[in-house]
Structure prediction request, 153 residues.
Amino acid sequence: MTTCRREHQRAVIRGISIALMLVPPVCLLGCTKPLAPVQAPSGGHTLVLDYDEFVLTVEPVLSQQGCDAGGDCHGGGIRGTFELSPDNAKDARFDFDQAVLQVSPTQRDSSRLLTKPLAIAAGGVPHAVKVFASVDDPGFQAIHLWIQHGVLQ
Prediction:
């Protein structure tokens, strides 16, 4: 082997060795956790909705309308994003948590919890079942009031 070729191999091995020593510490820099909590894009505002009011006024409307995990309705997965507990094993806390996810803190009147079950002619959006013909329906009003009573924090 020529001297020139040996020197080239040593230079390559040295370069690889240096790279292997530097790469792990550089890669780990991206794995450190932040020093302070990251603020939510909305500035951290959250709509706080009342659980007790939900249990007394909204959950009965959902049950009366058959909006539960039975059949093809609100069982989650491929059926949509609004999952509810089944009629034979009601879990009000689970249903509350799921309902809250359907509420827009900044555009409450446009929340999916209001617009999905509302007739299109009354301002609703496409949904397989339209349980409220108008915004005057008592069930719609119960859900609407619960959302309006929420406090933005």
Remarks:
- The mean pLDDT is 79.
- The beta strands are 47-48, 151-152.
- Helices lie at 3-29, 51-64, 92-101, 112-115, 138-148.
